[in-house]
């Protein structure tokens, strides 16, 4: 029978034929809390063409996962995310093996994401740029892994930006082969990154990354940098750098040496171009 009153469903596997489960079954459920969707490569055009699956749901955690399938329709990836536009504000979002170069509107809308605490993007190989994550007021944990096409952590520069990553405490960057820098500057000097509360930074196998961001005191962020030098990482306690073949400098300006005033642990391995340790 149809479980139309079901409110808790933490794990849903999409079947690969008409007799199996499809996401269409979730359309009328008033689900709450956590929902993890797996094997989304089995979703059909008919499944996503129905009305929004996010309507009537009070979800705080959403997880989307695809498996490699050479026969799947890549165009459906963005439509699947779009179909689950949440009507509540998410706290945790995880996306694995997403194959579109674009994210749907709700993911790129800071208002929809203003309560987001944790974001994890894994193996989204066509993703060339990210939403404006530095503007999210509640984001504490950011984990990016296997985004082979991503060139910059932040792009689409907005010169009105007054602070960046105001609550971020943990940043994990793994296997980002095309990552060239932290901030893409489009015309004019743009802004520079400050991570005022970041305590944990782990970067592994980002072979194109050559340097760390320079700091600049601007807007609201200046209060975090008082008496802590001019560091983009004034609160950093744990630093892990592994297999960064191009990393040469702690800042983009040769004269600039960033200071980690709160650093307690540093684990640096396989960074052959790095001549000095952080001060």
Question: What is the structure about, briefly put?
Answer:
By secondary structure, the chain is mainly β.
Characterize the structure shown:
This protein is mainly β. The chain folds into 2 domains: 1-106, no CATH class; 117-279. It is built from 4 helices and 12 strands. The protein has helices at residues 45-49, 76-83, 105-108, 222-225, and strands spanning 11-13, 32-38, 58-65, 92-96, 118-122, 141-145, 152-154, 170-174, 181-183, 200-204, 238-242, 265-269. The strands form 2 sheets. A 10-stranded parallel beta sheet has the order 1-2-3-4-5-6-8-10-11-12, with no helix packed on it. The radius of gyration is 20 Å and the shape is elongated. The relative contact order is 0.08.
What's the alpha carbon Rg, rounded to whole Å?
Answer: 20 Å
Give the tally of structural domains.
Answer: 2
In percent, how much strand structure appears in the residues?
15-25%
Strand arrangement across the biggest beta sheet = 1-2-3-4-5-6-8-10-11-12
Count of individual beta strands: 12
Domain R13L1/DRL21-like LRR repeat region: 23-146
InterPro entries: LRR_dom_sf, LRR_R13L1-DRL21
Protein name: NBS-LRR protein
Organism: Oryza sativa subsp. japonica
Write the SSE topology.
Blueprint: E1 11-13, E2 32-38, H1 45-49, E3 58-65, H2 76-83, E4 92-96, H3 105-108, E5 118-122, E6 141-145, E7 152-154, E8 170-174, E9 181-183, E10 200-204, H4 222-225, E11 238-242, E12 265-269
Parallel strand pairs: 1-2, 2-3, 3-4, 4-5, 5-6, 6-8, 7-9, 8-10, 10-11, 11-12
């Amino acid at each position: 029978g149809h479980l139309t009153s079901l409110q808790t469903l933490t794990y849903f596997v999409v079947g690969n034929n008409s007799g199996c489960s499809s996401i269409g079954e979730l359309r009328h459920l008033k689900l709450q809390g956590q929902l993890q969707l797996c094997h989304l490569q089995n979703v059909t055009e008919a499944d996503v063409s129905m009305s929004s699956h996010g309507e009537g749901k009070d979800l705080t955690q959403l997880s989307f996962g695809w498996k490699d399938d050479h026969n799947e329709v890549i165009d459906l990836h963005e439509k699947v995310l779009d179909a689950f536009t949440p009507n509540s504000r998410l706290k945790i979002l995880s996306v694995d093996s997403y194959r579109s170069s674009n994210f749907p509107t709700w993911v790129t809308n800071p208002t929809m994401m203003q309560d987001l605490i944790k974001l994890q993007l894994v193996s989204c190989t066509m993703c060339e740029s990210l939403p404006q994550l530095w503007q999210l007021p509640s984001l504490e944990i950011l984990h990016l892994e296997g985004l082979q096409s991503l060139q910059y952590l932040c792009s689409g520069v907005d010169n009105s930006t007054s602070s960046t990553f105001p609550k971020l405490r943990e940043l994990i960057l793994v296997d980002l082969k095309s990552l060239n820098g932290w901030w893409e500057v489009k015309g004019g000097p743009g802004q520079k990154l400050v991570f005022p509360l970041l305590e944990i930074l782990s970067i592994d196998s980002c072979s194109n990354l050559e340097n760390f961001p320079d700091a600049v005191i601007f807007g609201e962020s200046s209060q975090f940098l008082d008496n802590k030098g001019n560091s983009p990482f004034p609160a950093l306690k744990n630093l892990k750098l592994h297999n960064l073949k191009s990393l040469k400098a702690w800042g983009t300006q040769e004269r600039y040496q960033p200071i980690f005033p709160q650093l307690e642990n540093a684990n640096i391995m396989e960074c052959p171009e790095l001549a000095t340790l952080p001060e």
